[in-house]
Write a structure and sequence with these properties.
The chain is mainly α. The protein has one domain (59-428). The chain is built from 22 helices and no strands. It has helices spanning 5-20, 25-39, 45-55, 62-74, 78-90, 96-112, 115-132, 137-147, 150-153, 158-167, 172-178, 180-201, 211-236, 242-260, 266-299, 302-313, 317-334, 337-354, 359-373, 381-390, 394-417, 420-428. Helix 3 crosses helix 15 (266-299) and helix 7 packs parallel to helix 20 (381-390). The chain is globular.
């Protein structure tokens, strides 16, 4: 046994054992890293140094701002207006409320950037509404949780900021642009699946399409959608960095929520900020502890060993791409999104680039894989939220979600093997 083999076994075995016995992920990452350092005889002061180094990043300052922006817009009366806009766009179709759910998630995801926020906010409104109109409760919940993953792809997504920081040298603006078409493709595939089920079950249609109503709803929703334009075009145009754009978006969201839509008063703002601190503390603790874990992986040359092991299985680029997706999907079943991005990116990105996958394209692949993981037991946070909102057993929701898993996998494969889906828009805008 080499000098590196024993610490690697200690690091990975202790980590997966703690995951299996349902340790909080941050504790599992930190404790396994401590055990690994002790097995190498390294000083524990390394832990503090690496934790501070992990969160001492200008790019990561965008994360708390985007989280605050999403919380303010999500609780400031935005949801109802985006639902009305989506209804004006696609409510006339067979299974119209399912289509409204999917399109509203695309709009709302561009504001909140969070699948959990999407499910909790839109789900609490749309699931009861769909059930009242004759849709099955499990189908309504399945549509809600799967469409919420669009918010992970549509900017501004704080998970993309985390990926860009972890990958190193990746443009946040390019990642933001790269998410639009994959997000729309995911929405389209879910709409096709919903339409087939709606026709089979004879779900109702909505009101006839009206241009006048669409224009009216666009005028009402403009202030909400403008937040996304400020962030994306500000970053892409070079007017300000992702962090600066996020800070400006927070101020804009505050003004819109309090003074224009009047969905929040100042007491409500303080309550929202308290909720943001809870969310942000979880994210930053994960980033800090994952930095120690990443330090241990790098010191023990685990990325190189993993790359050699994976490429040793096959040299076929298509099979390697499928294998990378499979690894990410399996990790998504047992880990939350941020830890997967922080831990798996340094290991898998070199393999992806070696077979011709662009780092920006791989970021979209990672985010969508993690999004699917949020819907799969035993750790699927969005799956649990959807079940709680709909008051349905998780097993029933999973069964209803099976056709939509297929839609998401098809979208994932298209994004993997057709780079232009992710790269066309960033390349077009330079």
């Amino acid at each position: 046994m080499s000098a590196e083999t024993y610490p690697i076994i200690v690091l990975l075995a202790s980590f997966f054992i703690m995951i299996m016995i349902r340790f909080p992920i941050a504790y599992a990452v930190a404790l396994s890293s401590v055990l690994c350092l002790l097995s190498q005889g390294l000083p524990l002061t390394t832990i503090c140094q690496q934790m501070v180094k992990g969160i001492s990043s200008f790019s990561l300052m965008a994360v708390p701002f985007f989280i605050v922006m999403g919380c303010l817009m999500g609780t400031g009366g935005i949801s109802e207006k985006l639902i009305a806009l989506a209804n004006a766009c696609v409510g006339w179709m067979r299974g119209g409320m399912a289509m409204v759910n999917i399109v509203a998630s695309y709009f709302f995801g561009g504001i909140s950037g969070s699948a959990s926020a999407d499910t909790a906010s839109l789900g609490s409104l749309l699931i009861p509404m769909m059930v009242d109109q004759g849709y099955d409760a499990d189908f309504s919940t399945a549509v809600t949780i799967t469409s919420s993953c669009e918010g992970l792809l549509v900017p501004p997504s704080h998970n993309m900021v985390i990926y860009a920081t972890t990958a190193g040298g990746i443009s946040v603006g390019s990642l933001f642009l790269a998410g639009y078409i994959p997000g729309a493709l995911l929405a389209g595939s879910l709409m096709v699946g919903s339409y087939i089920i709606a026709v089979k079950r004879n779900y109702p249609k909505g009101d006839k399409f009206s241009v006048k109503n669409l224009v009216r709803q666009l005028s009402v929703s403009f202030w909400a959608l403008a937040a996304v334009l400020i962030v994306v075009f500000g970053v892409v145009g070079g007017w300000f960095t992702a962090t600066e754009s996020a800070a400006i978006a927070v101020i804009y969201s505050l003004i819109v929520s309090v003074y224009i839509y009047k969905g929040l008063d100042w007491k409500g703002v303080w309550r929202v900020l308290g909720d943001c601190i809870d969310t942000l503390s979880i994210v930053l603790i994960l980033i800090a502890t994952s930095s120690i874990f990443g330090y241990c992986l790098t010191r023990l040359h685990v990325p190189d060993l993993a790359a050699n092991a994976i490429t040793g299985v096959t040299r076929n680029p298509i099979l390697l791409a499928l294998l990378l997706n499979l690894i990410l999907l399996v990790l998504g079943c047992i880990m939350d999104m941020a830890p997967i991005i922080l831990i798996a990116t340094p290991i898998l990105l070199p393999i992806a680039t070696s077979i011709g996958i662009d780092p920006i394209q791989f970021g979209i692949i990672v985010v969508l894989n993690c999004g699917i993981g949020l819907l799969t037991p035993p750790v699927g946070a969005v799956l649990f939220i959807g079940s709680a909102v709909a008051k349905l057993p998780m097993e029933k929701v999973v069964k209803a979600t099976l056709p939509f898993y297929l839609c998401m996998i098809v979208t994932l494969l298209l994004i993997t093997f057709f780079p232009a889906i992710s790269l066309w828009l960033p390349n077009l805008l330079g």
